[in-house]
Design brief:
Helix content: 25-40%
Number of strands: 8
Number of domains: 1
Number of helices: 7
Strand content: 15-25%
Radius of gyration: 19 Å
CATH superfamily: Bifunctional carbon monoxide dehydrogenase/acetyl-coa synthase(codh/acs), Chain M, domain 3
Bound molecules: iron/sulfur cluster
Structural class: alpha/beta
Distance between the termini: 23 Å
Length: 240
């Protein structure tokens, strides 16, 4: 599947000259996942990532191209949690390499939906995540106790990877965290593009006619490699 490859390329280009701390995934590094959300009160918080009006963004891209996601790893651009002293801008970007889904748009959609579920269902201890699926923002309140226990984005990222690796078809996962980086505002446009692609897939599955001349989704298909081919392949299948 190539639908998100353009966004992955743009993301990696934006970050290519930045210094990064890379932690290869090891399950034993994964920060404790509580299995359900925990309330961290403001008075118990060390700081908020993406809090106090700081820009934040969260998006997930799926690909079948292993050159984009060659291994399981957490990449941290900017200060680790132990070095953060107050509210800072924040991004969490997840890149997933999956088995080839071919041209089966329903399989592609179901895989994307399952992966979306994981995006919101990891609950690291002392790390309260609040997401806005509409604006694609993510705020995280980090507890002082968690800082004392040694929480890090590297270990939180490993908790996310562990959860993704439970899903069939997931080959590799990279979780990218950005803290206090000026590129975060620029990356917010990518989250909107990811949403547009997923919504277009939904419309295609709803039986949208293949009339590109009168289709409001044409700007998405003009930009996203593989989308038009996917719709045409689906229509062909319906006719058989
Ligand atoms: S292929 Fe054409 S009809 Fe189908 S979603 Fe894209 S623009 Fe619309």
């Amino acid at each position: 599947m190539k639908l998100y490859d353009g966004i992955i390329r743009q993301t990696l280009d934006t970050l290519q000259n930045k210094s990064v701390q890379k932690t290869p995934y090891r399950p034993e590094l994964a920060w404790k996942d509580l299995g359900s959300s925990e309330l961290v009160m403001l008075r118990d918080a060390a700081f908020e990532l993406g809090g106090d009006g700081q820009p934040s963004v969260n998006y997930t891209c799926v690909t079948t191209d292993d050159t984009f996601v060659p291994d399981d790893a957490v990449l941290v651009y900017g200060p680790e949690l132990s070095a953060v002293k107050g509210d800072v801008s924040f991004a969490r970007i997840t890149l997933l390499e999956t088995d080839d889904l071919g041209e089966d748009e329903e399989a592609a959609y179901n895989t994307i939906r399952d992966l979306e579920f994981v995006r919101y269902h990891v609950f690291p201890e002392g790390y309260m995540v609040r997401v806005s699926s509409e604006s694609n923002q993510e705020q995280v309140r980090v507890a002082k106790t968690a800082i004392r226990k040694g929480i890090s984005l590297a270990r939180v990222g490993c908790a996310y990877i562990r959860k993704y690796r439970e899903l069939p078809g997931v080959r590799h996962v990279r979780v990218l965290f950005l803290t206090a980086q000026e590129e975060i505002a620029a990356l917010r446009g990518n989250a909107k593009k990811v949403d547009d692609i997923t919504k277009t897939l939904t419309h295609i599955l709803d039986g949208l006619p293949t009339d590109c001349g009168h289709c409001s989704l044409k700007p998405v298909c003009d930009e996203v490699e593989g989308m038009r081919e996917m719709h045409m392949a689906q229509k062909k299948k319906e006719r058989i």
